[in-house]
Every structure is written in structure tokens, then in C-alpha cells.
Amino acid sequence: MPELPEVEVTRLSFAQGIAGSRVVCVRMGKALRWPLGCPVSELVGRVVRAVRRRGKYLLIDLDQGLLLLHLGMSGRLSFAEHLAPAGAHDHFEMKTTQGTLRLTDPRRFGAVVFADSDSAPIAQKLLGKLGMEPLSDDFDLSRFHAGLKRRKSSIKEVLLAGDVVVGVGNIYACEVLFLAGIRPTRSAAGLGRGRIAKLHAAIRDVLARAVASGGSTLRDFSSAKGESGYFQLEAMVYGRAGQACRVCATPIESIRQGQRSTFFCPHCQKS
DNA sequence: AAAAGCCCCTGGATGC
DNA sequence: TGCATCCAGGGGCTTT
After folding, report:
1. Domain of A47: which CATH number?
2. Integer distance in angstroms from CA A33 to C1' B7?
3. CB neighbours (10 Å) of residue A195?
4. pLDDT digits (tens, 9 = 90+) for A174-205
5. pTM of the predicted model as reported, rounded to 2 decimal places
6. Which of A33, A87, A179, A242 is the most buried (most CB within 10 A)?
């Protein structure tokens, strides 16, 4: 479900509300991707300072240590003073003095992991190799260029890998490559400066607009307040195999790259 | 170092 | 209606 815009919108929807609260109790359901890494009792009484984001991870800063939270494919957060009774897919719940934070995640690819600090081994393992933040100033064109130049695999797979730039998932990778007019199978290293500049701009624009408009609802996203997003632009290519390109009416093609679906317009994305 | 595959898990859509 | 198959917005891990 969640790519960078959805994660960021989720963060914005509860960061203020939870900051300054104190943890009252924590309840775990079925196992998520990794164990929490500390006894739940150790979290009780700690103060929630702030919520940051790095890539698709949310970092919940406590007065001592932090929680790394990932939504995986199907995760969703809720934060409210009173939540409905926990259901079968609610696998993490943290009650605080200002409301309860709940992770609902049917597929359980998501995770909640405790780390002593940003430099703790577990935090380094999960965050250490992440690429540039596309919406921050460190997403610099020269560094993007340099990152792509040493990668022989396809540009689509490099975007998805997240070690050059983070946050671009399968939907946005397809959309951004369409906007930049780049064939997803093109080798990253083979792209010229001009096309890389265009791609760089497309990534910033699309992600920023998606955050500004409350996250994409290309499927079923909703923030931790339960507000559903409304991505103002419809998908140009994602999920549109066989349908007419919105620009040139050529049928959109679908292929597999690295076990994921890719959609593109063979005419608008000639090379 | 980088690339390619595998796998974790459940639910919804589709097809017979 | 029932059952099998395929697909899904992620990403760490192992093997080449």
C-alpha cells in the first residue's frame, strides 16, 4: 500500500497528536516481520518525543530509544483517543496518555522494532543503506547522476531498490518514468544527463504533489486519522495494461521486472 | 560491489 | 457454490 507519500501523510496525521505523550501499555498480536527487540514492559512510561520519517520507515523517538515502524505492503496506522476493539489484523497497539497508536497489517510484512538510538546496530542495518530523500535538499542532481551511473540494471529496478533514492515504490516508479519519457528497461547507467535531470524533476514533482494532496488513493490508502487521500492525478500507466495511453492512445504495455509488474507506454517511452 | 532470485503472509479477483 | 490460481503498493537475505 504505502509508498513515500502515504507514509509521510500518515506521519503528518499523528505526529503532533502523539508528541509529548507517555506510553501507558503496549500489546502485540501475531508476529510481524521481526520481533520487537525488547520486552514491551520496557516501553511503558517512556515519553514520545517526535515522529520522523526515513524512506518508508517511521521513526518514533522516545525519551530513551526509538521505534522503527514499517507498513510493509498492507500496513495502516490508526491513532485516536478511542479505537474500535482490536481486530484479527491489529498486530501492534501502543496506548499513550494522548491516544492509542495501532498498526493494522493483514499480510504482516510490516514491522515495529525498538532501537536504543539511531546508531544502534538494528537501526543501522535497516536504515544504513538507504539512498537520498527525494523531497529534501540532499536529493541533489549530481549525486543522483553519479548514483545511476554506476548501476547497470534497469532504471526501474534501480529506483525500486532504494539505495540511490528512497520512497519511490512500484506505482510511482512507473508513473515517474512515464512523465520523464524513459523506457523502464533502460539501463540506469545508459541514461544521459538531460534525461536524468528530467527524471529527477519528475520524482520531486510527483511525490511532492502526492503528499500535498493527502496521498494517493490508487488503491485504498487512508491516514492515521482515517481521512482518505485523493490523488488528483489519475495513474497514467500503472494498472492500465491494454488501455489507451492518455497522451497518445497507444495501448499501455505490462511486463515483469524483478518479480514486479511494470507498466509503460511504448510510444511515449520509446527509449 | 552489484545483480538476480527467494521469501515472508493474507485476501481479493478471476476462472473453471 | 467451491476450489485452484494468480496477483498485490516492500525489502531483507542468500547466492551468483
Report:
1. 3.20.190.10
2. 12
3. 17
4. 999 999 999 999 999 999 999 999 999 999 99
5. 0.96
6. A179
